[in-house]
Write a structure and sequence with these properties.
With 385 residues, the protein is of the alpha/beta class. It is built from twelve helices and 18 strands. It has one domain: FAD/NAD(P)-binding domain, CATH 3.50.50. The structure holds flavin-adenine dinucleotide.
């Protein structure tokens, strides 16, 4: 059996490794010409780590991951601690530590596990067609390829999604912009093994450790879509936006590299339940585009990859049965995560300021129990949990 995978992001690469492990002949096509992911890092929660472990990457993932022993919320303006608690109960309950990792390093790990030299870079897919015996993809350079199955892991702006749904899907602006990057870990910003989050006025500033004594940082700033922004001006913008915030936030703004700081407008997509058309199946953000507010988009893509492997394992010679099993095992779970993230997004970013004020009040009385229960709720429910 031959599979073509469109997209060498974390979803496509996880799927490529997963299918290759079954002995399927896998070909990966990627439009960019090198490993250059958008975004600095991600938090791979325990469900995502379990998927990577399942793909044989336990040691490699742990080597890239930051150690998060505790979590804290601080008042953004004063820097006073609202709550601080251990992650041990979460790790004990779900049986796996989460790992924040630098994106480029995660991508490289997956590329090497699949076979870097076997990735067809610089191949932009422009169309897909399905037939009784094969699905065929066409590339911008005029070449084509055919396979028993095409897995479209072509990301949040997936053009394959339009093909599968038969109509273009409209993404929804979530109301905020996320600035993110990597800086050297610094106790004046937050403890080295803590996920520290400053909150206030519907804004959020967070640092979490990744390997190599670095922090992954991000700033969430509510603002209209398409606000003007000059590339490289992150320090000026953030200094103005967070002028009256705590010293730790100013330390972070001074430490970041403006040229390497990403600015991303955050969108999501209403969940939908048709992921398969004939021999073509969506995977990752193409199938479920979420806001990053619970850190589950990439983890979900990894869950898709494992579920796809299980589906082809259970239906080895039957593409249609395998893809039906894949779709039915994933759409509800992925939809739930998209909607959970949307809800969290609205509270964090003050869609209703009274609800956000109530949340800040809760944080001042939190011992970790409620937050950990919420995170466990996100983590459980995938193919390995
Ligand atoms: C600010 C931010 C923070 C996030 N934080 C987290 C987090 O902490 N935890 C988490 O789990 N998730 C997080 N996410 C979500 C995560 O980044 C995505 O869910 C994940 O990248 C999806 O992987 P993917 O492979 O489906 O898509 P992508 O990573 O977008 O990869 C798609 C690939 O397909 C390629 N491609 C697209 N079109 C074509 C084409 N026509 N032909 C060939 N190739 C094509 C692209 O170049 C790209 O390489 C975050 C997202 C954002 C925006």
């Amino acid at each position: 059996m031959k599979a073509v995978i469109i997209g060498a992001g974390m979803g496509g690469l996880s799927a490529a490794i997963a299918l290759k492990q079954l002995g399927i002949d896998v070909t990966v096509y990627e439009q960019v010409t090198e490993n250059k992911p958008v975004g600095a890092a991600i938090s791979v929660w325990s469900n995502g780590v379990k998927c990577l472990n399942h793909l044989g990457l336990a040691e490699e993932t742990a080597a890239l991951g930051g150690i998060v022993d505790s979590m804290s919320y601080l008042d953004g303006f004063t820097g006073d601690t609202m709550c601080r608690f251990s992650m041990a109960p979460l790790i004990d309950e779900v049986g796996q530590r989460p790992y924040p990792v630098a994106r480029a390093e995660l991508q490289l790990m997956l590329m090497e596990a699949y076979g870097y030299a076997d990735i067809n870079f610089g191949k932009k897919m422009i169309s897909v067609t399905d037939g009784p015996d094969a699905a065929t993809v066409e590339f911008a350079d005029g070449t084509i390829d055919s396979a028993d199955v095409v897995i479209a892991a072509d990301g949040a702006k997936s053009r394959t999604r339009d093909y599968v749904l038969g109509t273009p899907a409209q993404r929804r602006y979530a109301g905020y912009v996320n600035f993110n990057g990597l800086v050297a870990a610094d106790d004046e910003i937050g403890p080295a093994t803590e996920w520290t989050t400053y909150v206030g006025d519907g804004r959020r500033v967070s640092v979490m450790p990744v390997a190599g004594d670095r922090f992954y940082f991000f700033f969430d700033v509510p603002m209209p879509a398409d606000a003007p922004y000059e590339r490289g001006s992150a320090r000026e913008v953030l200094t103005a936006e967070f002028a009256d915030w705590a010293p730790g936030v100013h330390k972070l703004i001074a430490a970041l590299d403006p040229a390497a700081t990403n600015r991303v407008e955050i969108f999501d997509l209403d969940p939908f339940h048709t992921w398969v058309a004939g021999r073509v199946a969506l995977l990752g953000d193409a199938a479920h585009n979420t806001t990053p507010d619970i850190g589950q988009g990439g983890c979900s893509a990894m869950e898709d990859a494992v579920a796809l492997q299980f589906s082809f394992r259970d239906h080895p010679d039957n593409v249609s049965a395998a893809l039906a099993a894949y779709q039915s095992s994933r759409t509800e779970r992925a939809a739930e995560l998209v909607l959970r993230a949307r809800k969290r997004c609205d509270v964090t970013h003050a869609k209703d300021p009274a609800k956000t004020a109530a949340w800040y009040d809760e944080l001042r009385h939190e011992d970790g129990t409620n937050i950990i229960a919420g995170i466990v709720g996100n983590i459980v429910g995938g193919p390995l949990t």
